[in-house]
């Protein structure tokens, strides 16, 4: 393995370690935040080119299964915005917000927003651990290859709204949370109506937040 390959491998291992640690103990995020931001700031210029053609196929299946179109959608850990673009294309009336910790990712997402989507898409730098949005602001929250902060994402989903988690390479995805673990965390916060999807190498999980939460 050459130096670049070694660096990429270390980056993947770090992402998996961070995911496992933060899902088990969210308070550990403070130890990982700076390095995670630096890792993805560095990757931002090449990120889109690293995505396979079917990277969001499972996410798309989850979106297809939504019973109704969201008015507002949030893509957490949006990177260069590819999943957010997919949401905006799927729901032509929706306002779509993408957030990312890494400023250079947000700059890439803003610069590559297709003109036909730009009037209803915004990207901003924010930490998914503490989001700058009011409770229940979004009928849909998506996470593509992103570390989940369950309390905070639950807070911003509207009652009866949905969340879709997707992992482009299934269990091989560096940032991956096993579906049974996702379900347990979501059930504990009042989510129901789970549905699993497989497409290409990817997987996704859809869940609905209770009406009265
Ligand atoms: C593996 S990339 C996925 C990017 C994009 N969703 C995709 O699938 O192409 C993970 C992204 O999540 C961002 N991220 C990690 N932790 C975050 C946090 N706490 N809040 C916001 N973004 C975060 C990273 O900066 C990175 O851009």
Give me a quick take on this structure.
It is built from 7 helices and 7 strands, in the order αααβαβαββαβαββ. Helix content is 40%, strand content 24%. The protein has a 7-stranded mixed beta sheet with strand order 3-2-1-4-5-7-6, sandwiched between helices.
Describe the model.
The protein is α/β, with parallel strands linked by helices and 213 residues long. 40% of the residues lie in helices and 24% in strands. It contains 7 helices and 7 strands. The longest helix has 22 residues, at 3-24. The termini are far apart. The model has no long low-confidence stretch (mean pLDDT 96). The structure holds S-adenosylmethionine. The site of S-adenosylmethionine has 21 residues, from α2, α4 and β2.
Give the SSE map:
Layout: H1 3-24, H2 29-50, H3 57-64, E1 72-76, H4 82-90, E2 95-100, H5 103-111, E3 121-125, E4 138-144, H6 150-156, E5 157-167, H7 179-187, E6 191-199, E7 202-209
Parallel strand pairs: 1-2, 1-4, 2-3, 4-5
Antiparallel strand pairs: 5-7, 6-7
This protein binds S-adenosylmethionine.
């Amino acid at each position: 393995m050459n130096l670049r390959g070694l660096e990429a491998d270390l980056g993947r291992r770090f992402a998996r370690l961070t995911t496992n640690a933060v899902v088990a103990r969210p308070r550990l995020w403070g130890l990982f935040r700076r390095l995670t931001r630096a890792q993805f700031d560095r990757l931002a210029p090449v990120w889109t080119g690293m995505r396979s053609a079917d990277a969001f196929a499972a996410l798309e299946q989850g979106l297809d299964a939504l019973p109704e179109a969201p008015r507002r959608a949030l893509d957490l850990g949006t990177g260069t915005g590819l999943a957010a673009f997919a949401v905006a294309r799927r729901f032509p009336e929706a306002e779509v917000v993408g957030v990312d910790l890494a400023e250079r990712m947000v700059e890439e997402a803003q610069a590559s927003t297709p003109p036909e989507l730009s009037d209803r898409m915004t990207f901003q730098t924010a930490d998914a651990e503490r989001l700058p949005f009011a409770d229940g602001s979004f009928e849909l929250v998506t996470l593509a290859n992103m570390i989940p902060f369950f309390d905070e994402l639950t807070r911003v989903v509207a009652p009866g709204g949905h969340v879709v988690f997707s992992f482009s390479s299934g269990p091989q995805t560096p940032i991956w949370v096993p579906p049974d673990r996702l379900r347990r965390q979501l059930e504990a916060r009042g989510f129901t109506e789970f549905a699993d999807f497989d497409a290409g190498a990817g997987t996704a999980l859809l869940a609905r937040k209770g009406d009265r939460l």
